[in-house]
Structures are given as C-alpha cells and as structure tokens.
Predict the structure.
Amino acid sequence: MFEITTELVRRLIHSQFPQWKDLTINPVEKSGHDNRTYRLGNDMTVRLPSHERYASAVEKELTWLPVFKPHLSLPIPAPVAKGEPTEEYPLPWSINRWIEGETVTHANISDVNEFAEDLAAFLKELEAIDASGGVPAGIQNFHRGGNLAVYDNETRSIIETLSDEYDQVLLTEIWELSLTTKYQSAPMWLHGDVAVGNLLVKDGRLCGVIDFGTMGVGDPSSDLVMAWNFFDDDSRRIFLNRMNFDDNTVHRARGWALWKALITFAWNEHGSEASNWGKHVMDVIIRDYKKHGL
C-alpha cells in the first residue's frame, strides 16, 4: 500500500497538470480501498490506486468507460486525463469528472424496492453492451466474472474455523451448490464490484455508478451480490426477478456473496465494522437459503 496524501496529489497536479494547480484538492470522505479519491475543484476527481495490484484498472477505465457511456442511462465516471507514474508515486493515475450524489445507505433512498429496480435496470443495460473485445475475467479483476472455484480452498478453510458460531455443514452446502455449475453463455460485461460504496444516490434515487476498476467480461453472477448485501426479502426478490437469470446463476451469485462475507468476517478484527458487516451478510444468506430451500 502506498501512503497517499493531499500533499502528494497536489505535487502530482502541479507537475503534470499545471493548468489545474490553483484548484482546491480535498479527500473524498468514502474513498474506497483499492483507490484513493480526491475532489479537484468542483468538477473533477483524482483517483490513485492504493497498490500496484490495482494499477491495471486505470488503463481499463480510460479505455472502456467512454465506450459504455452512450449505452447507460445513469452517470458513470468520465475520464478527463491520465496521470503518469513518478519516482514519488510509481503508478498510473487518473482524473475524472465529478458525479454528484451520496453513497447509498438505507436512510437516503426513498424506497428500497424502487432502488432494486433501478439497480437491476442499470446492470441490464451494462450487460447488453457488446462484450466482444472486452477484458476477460481473471487475475486482473480478482476473477469477478470467472470461475468462483478459484476461491474454494480459501472459503472452505474459513468455514472450518467457524464451528463455534455457525453450522459448518450448512455453509458448506450453500458453498458447494454455488460450484455445481459454470457459466455456459456468451460473456457479458460486468461491473465487478457492485457494492454500496460504488452506488450514488440523489433525491432518494440511484443517480450514478462509480469505480469500474474490477470490470471484465464473463459470468454476470458476481454482480448480483447486492441481493444479500443490501436488500431485504421483498427487494431481493424484485432485484433477482428483474435480473431474470436462472436458478444456477443465482446459486453462483450467492456463492460470491458468501465468499466475500466470509473473508470480511474472518480477516478483520471481530467486533469491527467490517467484521460485523460480514457476519450480517452471512446471517442474511443463511436465513434466505433456509427460507427458500435452495
């Protein structure tokens, strides 16, 4: 991880984009993990990968976001410029247009069912974009859209540690169900990280989607994890119905959600916000699985 500060960003702007050197630079409150984001003046953001493993996303976003934009009804980041690596900060970075909106919470949306429909509509638009020539799922996007089995050993290892807190047999059953099928259809575009931190709300409605760093083409199931990460029973049903995939895709999606919840729960200090989030999602997945029997 690199230490990224306002002062570093200011030096990068001064040296590479002196036309903007007099603009204010302020860190964005919810900046994310893979990247650090700063607001540049009123109309732009500076986005810097926090580690070299996230650096490939810069070129990917610069290439593909302008292709996506005409096909999507909601705002997405619009690249303005590419920053070059320096001795002080040895990775590429980017400047994008600012998108108005707040990070989604249950408190700032008017209706969770409406939000489920809006999100599904956006994802269907994304999936409909021509994926030929797109970036295949793999190491570059942490296998989003690829084969969930790459995380099999990791997932089973964590489940084995949970004997005091969870029914290991049940968790293993849910996990193994997600691995019983593989995606057989034509690859689709996927965002790769459909999570609350990347969804913006204004006036109670979904108003923008950001951070396409883990985009790729492949199996769209990993983009459905909000079904368990955010939605309640009714909105989950609405969201999955609108996405209109078969049961096997939903099983794989649940597996993606379970894997992320498990590692977040296990790899963070118990009682921390992150660990509590992981536990909550695991509980939702288990309750939903028991209720529907599949």
User: Anything to note?
Assistant: The mean pLDDT is 96. The longest strand covers residues 35-40. The longest helix spans residues 247-267. The two ends are 40 Å apart (CA to CA).
